Amino acid sequence: MSESQTRPPSRLLRNLNAKIASIPMILTAVVVFAGGTAWTVLYSFTNSKLLPRLNFVGLDQYTRLWAAPRWLVSIENLLIYGVLSLIFSLVVGFVLAALLDQKIRFENTFRTIFLYPFALSFIVTGLVWQWLLNPEHGIQSVVRGLGWTSFSFDPLYNSEIVIYGILIAALWQGTGLVMCLMLAGLRGIDEDIWKAARVDGIPMWRTYLFIVIPMMRPVFVTTLVIIASGIVKVYDLVVAQTSGGPGIASEVPAKYVYDYMFFAQNLGQGFAASTMMLLSVVIVIVPWAYLEFGRRRRA
């Protein structure tokens, strides 16, 4: 047998069929995503109105953006919504997963019930909770009908707490997915760890806090990225529940971008706002990539 026949294929030719099959996906990612992103950032420095045009105005669009009260309100709402959504989604999702991990009866039924809201679209969820939080037909009306006539619960009609009404709907829909991710992580914990903890007399809460949760770091990191990406692009719930009202009290960045690009016909301002949203996504993705790939490479 000749030397050329025994020589292993070069690194470039390994898995050649898989590399050829991935070319369309790579081209799509480069042209559509990377190209579209670069195009958006480029035109955010122009004064494009109804149609894009290369008439550069420097940072004027960003100056106007951060001077606009509507944009500042949307950023404040996103921060409140984002922080509370991260905290409650992780806490409630983990607690539900820990309860289901106790091998309770009808586990499949409970798991289906908790996960079912995630199968609904955000528009449907928003409309459902718009009705539930309606003071004339929803929770407030039911409670008052039971005799508590002074009970008041109308967050969607109160500009001070409207963002919390949207948060309730988001938690109802998204917590089930977090629960499933956490449950999968808990089921991956070796049973011997639980046995050793019981033999050593370690309380269950300490086992979860100091042993189980650190072992589930990859699950928590992945869950954080999923939740954070949903927070940045929240739009459907706001439109379905309040349309940004009362006034501009429930505005969010995604709605600001949509309104300026398609209603106000101010593409430059919409591009600037979407670029800021892109920057927030980068802030989320870069630490995740560092945690996932940086440590793995050092290991």
TrEMBL record:
Residues 75-290 form the ABC transmembrane type-1 domain. GO terms for biological process: transmembrane transport. This is Sugar ABC transporter permease. It is a multi-pass membrane protein. It comes from the Bacteria. PANTHER family: ABC TRANSPORTER PERMEASE PROTEIN. Belongs to the binding-protein-dependent transport system permease family. GO terms for cellular component: plasma membrane. Keywords: Cell membrane, Membrane, Transmembrane, Transmembrane helix, Transport. InterPro entries: ABC_transporter_permease, MetI-like, MetI-like_sf. Pfam families: BPD_transp_1. It is found in: Cell membrane. The chain crosses the membrane at residues 21-45, 78-100, 112-132, 161-186, 207-232, 271-291.
